[in-house]
Every structure is written in C-alpha cells, then in structure tokens.
Write a structure and sequence with these properties.
With 213 residues, the chain is α+β, with helices and mostly antiparallel strands. It is 35% helix and 14% strand. The protein has helices spanning 31-36, 57-69, 72-77, 93-101, 129-150, 173-187, 192-195, and strands at 45-53, 83-91, 114-123, 153-154.
Length: 213
C-alpha cells in the first residue's frame, strides 16, 4: 500500500495497523526506493494474467480459495522454480471521474470501485513455458468465472499486467477503440507504431481490413 503524502502512520490505513506482521517496511521514501525494496525471486521467466472485478468480501474469499486450493497449483509447484504471486490494485471512482474530466475514458472504465487483479507466475526452464502459461490462464479463468457468478465481474484488463494472448484492447469497448484510432490517424498516419514497432498490443483492423482509415 502506498500513501502519496509524506505522512507517518496515515489515518487512511488505520484499520491495518492492528494486524500482526512478520516484518514492516513502511516509511517515507521515494518511488525509486520503494520499488528497489521489492523482493522479487531471481527467476528468469515470468508470465502475468489480468482480470478485474468490483470488490466484495465474498469474491475475495473465493479468490483466496482458488489461489490456495485449485488443482493447477500442483503443476506450478512441481515445476523447477515454480512460483505464484498475486497483485491487488484498488481503483476508486474518484480516479475514474478525474481521468474522464481531464481527457476522457478511452479505457472504457465503468464509474464503479473496482480491483485490478493480477496473477504472476515465475519458473526457470523454457521447457515449461507453455505449461505454466496454460495453468496460470486456467487460474485466471476460474477467478473470472467466480466474479461473474458473484455479479461483480468487470471486463477491463490492465495492459501492464496482461499476458500476451489476452485480448486487452477489445475490453476498452467500441468507443474506446474509436478514440484511439482517431489519435492514431492524427499522430501516426504512417502507422509506424502499428507496423514497425515489435511486440505489445496493436489496434485492431476494422471490418474493411484497415486501421481506422
């Protein structure tokens, strides 16, 4: 958790102070210092999967059950260096409203409190690439199905945390894609970023096989 003002023991985090911990690294520090202090296992291979939902106690309990009891975990555990971490990013409606007021909502976010959730899988050998990718995707699918059953599913997938085969841009909705294509038409008419820059997610072609032109 991060508090953006230089305040010791911010009252916003008061509910957490009574929870017992095995370590405490909270202090006033720069973003660079905070990031360098993260303890990431020295594994050479990583994959991520993203999903989103509206937060409730019930969905968090179901996710806790999935990431601790699902059969896919045995596959990860049996792989050399197999590791699984989760990330929870709470997004408040104030952030969504402010973003819309200052430039729009190309991401197609609904004006609701939501959690951007990520599964991080790590391992050692390239021989396990497909297997770990598939089982992590299966775990992510379980979480998505659980949030749909709870009626709290949100279609948005955070691009920074999504895996290579997640259809991120389609989650922005028709209006979001249209806005991005208009920006592309204005600032990149020669499609340099679309055709010459490798990797990442690209804007899809329209029904006529064109990039919004």
């Amino acid at each position: 958790m991060v508090y953006l003002k230089p305040v010791v023991n911010a009252s916003a985090f008061a509910p957490f102070y009574s929870i017992p911990t095995t370590g405490d690294t909270t202090k006033i520090q720069s973003l660079t210092q905070m990031m360098s202090g993260q303890q990431v296992p020295p594994l050479p291979r990583w994959d991520w999967f993203a999903t989103s939902f509206r937060p409730t106690a019930s969905i968090y309990q179901k996710i806790a059950d999935i990431v601790t009891k699902a059969p896919e975990l045995a596959t990860i555990q049996s792989t050399a260096g197999g590791s699984l971490a989760i990330g929870v990013q709470p997004i408040n409606t104030n952030l969504i409203r402010t973003g819309k007021a200052q430039g729009g909502n190309s991401l197609g976010l609904k004006n609701v409190n939501q959690t951007w959730f990520v599964l991080d899988a790590g391992w050692i050998s390239s021989d396990a690439d497909a297997m770990i990718h598939n089982v992590t995707r299966a775990l992510n699918t379980r979480i998505g199905e659980a949030s749909k059953a709870e009626g709290v599913y949100e279609p948005y997938e955070f691009m920074n945390d999504a895996s290579w085969d997640q259809d991120v841009i389609s989650r922005y909705g028709v209006e979001g894609k249209r806005n991005m294509m208009q920006v592309q038409r204005k600032y990149d008419p020669n499609l340099v970023f679309q055709k010459l820059v490798p990797g990442g997610w690209k804007l899809p072609k329209d029904d006529y096989g064109e990039y919004g032109y």
